[in-house]
Every structure is written in C-alpha cells, then in structure tokens.
Amino acid sequence: HRGAQLPPLPPAAGSRLQWKDAAKPLLALTIPLEALQAVKDRMLQAMRKGLSRQTHAQANVRMLPAYICSTPDGTEKGDILVVELCQSHVRTLRVTLLGDGNQSPQVTYKIFDMPGDITQGKGEALFDFIAQCLRQFLAGISSPQHRLPLGFVFPFSCRQTQLDKAELISWSKGFSCSDVEGKDVVQLLQSAIKKQELHHVDVVALMNDTVGTMMTCSMRGEPCEVALIVGTGTNSCFMAEAQLVEMAEEISGQMCVITEWGCFGDDGTLSDILTPYDQHVDQESFNPGEKRFEKLVGSLYLGEIVRHVLTALVAEKVLFTGRSVAILRTKDVLKTQQVLEIINNEEGMAKARRVLEALGLQPSEQDCCRVQQICRAVVSRAAALCAAGLAAILSHMCQSQELERLVVNVGVDGELYRGYTSVTGLLAPECMATLLPSVDGTGQGAAVVTAVALRLAAQRHEVDQLLAPLQLSRADLERVQALMRREMELGLGLESHANASVRMLPTYVRGTPDGTERGEFLALDLGGTNFRVLVVRVAQDGIRMASEIYVIPTAVMQGTGEALFNHIIECIMDFQLKQNLLEQVLPLGFTFSFPCQQLGLDKAVLLSWTKGFSASGCVGQDVVQLLREAAQRKQHLGLKVVAVVNDTVGTMMSCGYDDPKCEIGLIVGTGTNACYMEEMRNVGTVEGEQGRMCINMEWGAFGDNGCLDDFFTDFDRLVDEKTINAGKQRFEKLISGMYLGEIVRHILLALVEKQLLFRGKPCPKLQTRDIFQTKFLSTIEIDGLALQQVRAILQDLELQASFEDSLLVQKVCQTVSLRAAQLCAAGLAAVVEKMRENRGLAQLAVTVGVDGTLYKMHPRFSQHLQQMLRDLAPNCTVTFLQSEDGSGKGAALVAAVAALLRTSDS
Ligand code: ADP
Ligand code: MG
C-alpha cells in the first residue's frame, strides 16, 4: 500500500500535465509504509550497534548511557536547584518537591538571555555566565543557606560515566565554545559556581534535555519510559535493560539511554529516501554529510526543505509562473514556524498567502494551495520518520523485556508530535504508546532526577549498613576455616570428642569402590526432601537402577518412631510388589542422612534428628534395629539390612565408582554435610591404626558450641529461633536450602521496616514463614535475567516491586547465597588442607563428589564455592564431580563393598 501518512491530494486543478509535474515532489517526499518499515529496521540495527561494546565506536546512533536507573516514584522530596542551558537563554529554577506523588511541585524560575557571542567564545566565560545567573537568581529568592543540590540540563552529546560526570563529546546547534570538548562539564560548572562563592550549591546530576522531558512527563501519574524531542534538532531517550547497554558497566536494572539519533543515516543508510531537496539542504548546512536524520526532521531544516521544493517547482514552471522568484534563493527566508502555520486546517491558506506575499511572490489561489500541500508533505514526512524511530525504540524495549505486548508512555517536546501515534501503531503494532506532550519543559524532571540521585545515595548507604554483617572478609573466612580445623581435631579425639560441635562420626567405610563390585541390591534413601526406595544392579557394564519416590507426611516425620518405620516398611513392600521383587531377599543398603553413632557398618545409633524430622522414641536407638522391628510388626521377613550410610558417604562412593580420586562427599541440599577419608591413626574413637576410614563430619552442627557466634547476624538468629531445633545445626542454617529463603525473607522484612523496600508498605504475605523459597534465589540470581521477571516472581508473592525494589531483592539474594558458598568453601578448605597434611604432600589433588539441589541448581553457588576454595587452599587442586543419584547408588555400592569384604573375610 501507499504511504498512509499523507493527506489526500486535492481534486485536480489546472491542466493534467501541469498537475503531474506539480505532484512529482509530493511523491518524492512520500515514504511508503514498506520503506518506513525498512527505516525502522535500520534504526533498530543502528541502535544495536551503538549498544554493543564492540561496535559502539563506529556507530552513528551512539546510544549514550545517562546513568539514570529509574523513573520517579513520587516520594522525591526537598529543595532542588536546576539550571537549564537552552539555545539562546539560561533558565534557573528552584523546585520544591513535596514527596507526595499527587501534588505538583512548587516552582520558582527566572530566564536570562545569553549575550549572542558567548556561544562562540571561551568555555570559561560560558560557565561563568551560567554561575552568575545562578547567583542572581538565588539573591532574588529567599534561598536557604543549607546545602542545595543542583541538577544541570545540558542538551549536548556527552560521554557520561556517572550521573555527575560527563565529558562533552562535541558541540552542536550553533555552540562552539573553546576548551570544553573532552572536559567534564559538571566540573566546569562546579568550579564556576565556586568562583561565585556559592559554596552551598552542589552539582549532583547532569542530564540531557530528553531525559529531563522524560522525567517531567513521569511526574504526572504513570511513569514515562521514553522521550522524544523534535525541536531545533531531534533526539530521544528511553529506559533500556542495563545489561544491554554495554558501554555502562551496570549489569542489572535499567539504564536510560540517549539515542543521539540525529546522526542516524550519516553512513548512507538513508540514501534511498533522501530527495534532491534534502541534498541541497545538507550541502548548504555548516556540517554537510552529518546529522542526516536530524536534517529530515529538526525544525532548523524544515523551512529550508520547503524552500528547495518551491525552487524546483518554479523551475518546472508550475508555481509562481511569471513572477520574480529571486527571493527563494536566500537561505532561511522560510521559517519552520511559518511552515507549521501554513499546514493549519483553518487558517493555513490565509497564512500561506500572507507569507508568500510578504516575500513578494504574488501567489495565485492555486499557488497557495500547492505551497500548503508541500508544507504538509514535508512535515508529514518528518513526523513519519520520527514515528519510525519511535517504533524502533518501542520494538527494542518490547523484545529486550521479552514482552508480547508493551504498553508505555512517551514524553514529547516539540510541535511535530501529532502525527506520530497512528504511524507508530502501524510500524510497531505490538506496542501501545501514549504520547504525553511536555508542557513545562525539562526543569521539574531535572529536579526529580537530582532528588532521586540524592535519595538513592542515602538509601544505598543504609542498605550497605544493613547487609554489612553478612559480608565476610577474607580474614573472616580464614578464621572459619581455622575453627573448623580445630573442631575436626576435637571431634576425632577420644577425650575431646564429647565437647566438639563437629562430631566426626566413623562410618566403618574403609575404602572407595574399585569397580569390581557386583550384585543386585535394595536401597533406601531417607533424610531429604524425598523418601525413595530403589533397586540397584551393579554389573560389569555399569550400574542400573529403578526407583520410586514416596511421601512422608509431616505428621509422620514428627509423630512416633513406630509410625515412621511402619510407614517405611509399607513403602518398601509396595515397591517390591511393583518391581516383582517380593520373592527375593536382596541385601539392603540404607542411606540414612542424620547424625548417627555408628558401631558397625550395619549398626547406627541416632544421635539427633535434623532437617524437620522429630519422630519420638528414635534418638539413642539403632535405626537398623528400628527398621527390623517394624518389618517384624508388618510380617515382612525378607529384609536383609547390610549397611547404613549417610548421604555424604553414598555420594562419595557413587562418584568414587567413576573417579578413584573421589575421597570427599559433600551435600548442599535441604541440609549440608560432608565426609572424607581420614587416616585411621587420627581416628581416636575407633580401634586400629591401619588404613583409612570415611568420617561423616556432621558439619551442619559446626558452631553449636558458640564458636561461630561472632558471625551470626540478627537475621540468622530470627531464622534459628523459629526452627524445631533452635540452637542446633547453626552452620547448616547459614548454608542450606531449608534456610536461605528464610534468611532472605527476614532481611526483606527489615528493609521494609526501614522504608528501603516496597516504599515501606507493610507486606502481610512476607510475614508468612517459608513463603520465600530457596529456589527463588536461583531464579532471581540468573545472570541477565530481565528484572521484569524478578518483578513477576515477587508479584506472585503479592509484592508490588518497582525496578529498584527488584534490584535490591536481587542484591539481598546474592549476598545470602554468596555467604553460604563462601562458608561452605571455608569448611572444605579445612578438610582438604587436613588431608594434604595427613599425607605429607606439598600439593594434593582430590575430587569432591557433590549432591544437593542447591549446589546443582543455583546459578552461582558452585562457582563461588570453587573460587573461594582455591583462594583458601591454594595447595590443593580440587575437582568437583556432581553425583547422579548418589544416595541410592552409593548405598548399594556400600552394600556391595560390604558383601565383597564379607566373602573375603570368610
Ligand atoms: P535433599 O537434600 O533433601 O536430599 P535436595 O538435594 O533435592 O534434597 O535439596 C532440596 C532443597 O533444595 C530444598 O530444601 C530446597 O530448598 C532447595 N531447592 C529446591 N530447588 C532449588 C533450586 N532451584 N535452587 C536452589 N535450591 C533449591
Ligand atoms: Mg539428598
């Protein structure tokens, strides 16, 4: 189809031939919808080029980060000064923000005309002038003497690296002061202000006029995330996903980007839509070849385009025939303002006549009509091109936020905005943009940016203070490592064993698998989220298994021991029935992941329940015996328990089957624990000096004797108090899946209380225990996850999060999971260092078999753990091997090893 943006041509006037000639430029100025679509696509490409670090330097559309990360939320408050540098004047404002989104701010302002030569003179003079304006302004209002923050609106391309640090890249719009390009404009203004002895005025933010417009429009209710300026020049800005703005080192949240799209087309990409008239305009400008898009759109040029079209029509003899038209050779005789008046529906014709007559052109009725058509074509084209640019921005936002549909407000300044929405709608149908014309310029927006900057800085400080106790230094972690080492020694010693918080339980597992194990086994896995029964076949060609998950209801976990073990037997019987195994008596390995005093491979006295279990009558009993008794009660006679193992041991054994270096087992799931191969001579609690034995550390209880008290925060104490084993498993409660979400929840509550999150609004849902699951940490911390998605997760919890809120929640999650990983590393460092010393090695190479959903699913945990371990134990080369189904496989392997040992014994 044809271009949708042009008004229909009027009925033919004059001869056919003449009409055709007159219509030629109109056709050239008409951009069909397909071509506009192509312009939009090229704009999108150019924008991507500007955003990418690799291609940024060659990009025409520079996509400059503005270091503005959020739109105002209405809570901004205080007295703010604003200085706006405009085309021919300086505007100073004092804006009093009331901190109540609904009330408009109080504004006092004064405009100072600039002496004509100052824009071409010395930079210093320009900034001195601005500072003088400010001093005069402050003298005229009763300005307080306390610190006054100032926002500076500076409408030129800057390389910004912070909100208050911006190097001018190059002057434009007729400015060319010396000694400013390449310099930090904030500093130049601040020192000029000092010279005026305004010592209480601090320049805290610099922004472009597009940003000011976006912010001003944001103050009227809904946030506005895009702004367009079509004034003398043209430019736009929008809120982008920060990680896409590679030139800014921010990776999370949003970042306002100034497109600098005036230069779009400087590499020739617009050549197919440029008309001969545009080429003339460009050649006669002071910067030929540059700012090609701006020259199609900006008001500095529209009058000139019309003048060149008129000149061409005169040459074709279809306009002003027989009149003297020399005046049309004079640059800038037609002003854009006049063009805009001529296109007016009611008074446009009269205006055209007046303008043309003033130029001495004596227009006929038909001349006036044609001139109006041309003006309309030029303005419509500018609007259509702007709409294509806007469509590119909207589609980019929509894609990068992974939305199916984008609904957004667009702040606009300049007179050309009327035509935008319909064309934008055609070009980016997936986006719904509402244009908000800016009525009060950029000043209020600038004040808000300044206030936001102040508020964020103050909040950041408070958040840092609140999170500081959770941030462990290298020295802290070395201390944890040393304490763990001490507790290990205590736990191994016959005399000291009773007083150690790390119990160091012997497992009677004396070796890891060697690959010769064979047979068919039953296995039980109890002690985690799921209770499972398995059948495992260990054969020459590997291990095969089948399993079934059974639920243990909380009532059974926390009821009587009899009921618990009855339930377990019922599950085994159900499994055997399903697997057709009821007739066989298979050796059974029992993975029982609670601290046990083991008296033999098949004799394990429960020392205490953990992880939410509390069945009565079990502590102090041999769990194998409890299982056998239940089997008897249920008349299940074919049960032959040969080994009880902890899940850490199972994990080590199953990884050991694939890697003989695997001599450590680690679990980071619901709980956390570790085991490793210790020298028998160091195990004071078991007779014998020869060989090694696997020690189940039960390190979850590390710190239960108070040795970690310095590291616990208020949040940890709150979490601990609400557990069924308060005061116990203190190390575990800093690290494992059952607790991390709870720690985060308590921190979020504290942040809300301090008005640092969710605008301080009380969140009833957040009061609910366990509502913030540890798996949310994994999702929220995924690298490059659009914050929109974080917001969606929080929304499911009925938490209305702004982007800043989402960022803060992400930061809290990162802090908590980082601490967990680092503490885990400190514990492991103690283990590997001890093994290295045991063996008298300068360098130890060892593999850790790991299991647990937190370790496996969290996007950063394993990385942080391994990195910290390298730092803390530089003489150990530690490989991590994730176990697949370690608990089940491992129990079978222990049973197999036991069976082998038994045959070799006899
Ligand atoms: P267990 O340790 O009980 O044998 P898992 O290793 O599966 O079982 O760990 C379960 C724990 O992992 C749960 O307590 C839960 O908090 C945590 N978890 C579940 N999904 C995730 C996830 N995607 N990211 C991090 N932690 C998770
Ligand atoms: Mg498990």
Automatic annotation (TrEMBL):
PROSITE patterns for the chain: HEXOKINASE_1, HEXOKINASE_2
GO CC list: cytosol; mitochondrion
Organism domain of life: Eukaryota
GO molecular function (one): fructokinase activity
Pfam families reported in the protein's UniProt record: Hexokinase_1, Hexokinase_2
Bilayer-spanning residue ranges: none
Enzyme Commission number: 2.7.1.1
Domain Hexokinase C-terminal: 226-452, 663-897
Any single GO BP term: intracellular glucose homeostasis
Enzyme superclass (EC): transferase
Domain Hexokinase N-terminal: 28-218, 462-657
Keyword annotations: ATP-binding, Glycolysis, Kinase, Nucleotide-binding, Transferase
Gene3D superfamilies recorded: 3.30.420.40, 3.40.367.20
Listed pathway(s): Carbohydrate metabolism; hexose metabolism; Carbohydrate degradation; glycolysis; D-glyceraldehyde 3-phosphate and glycerone phosphate from D-glucose: step 1/4
Catalytic activity: D-mannose + ATP = D-mannose 6-phosphate + ADP + H(+); a D-hexose + ATP = a D-hexose 6-phosphate + ADP + H(+); D-fructose + ATP = D-fructose 6-phosphate + ADP + H(+); D-glucose + ATP = D-glucose 6-phosphate + ADP + H(+)
Family: Belongs to the hexokinase family.
Function field: Catalyzes the phosphorylation of various hexoses to hexose 6-phosphate.
Name of the featured protein: hexokinase
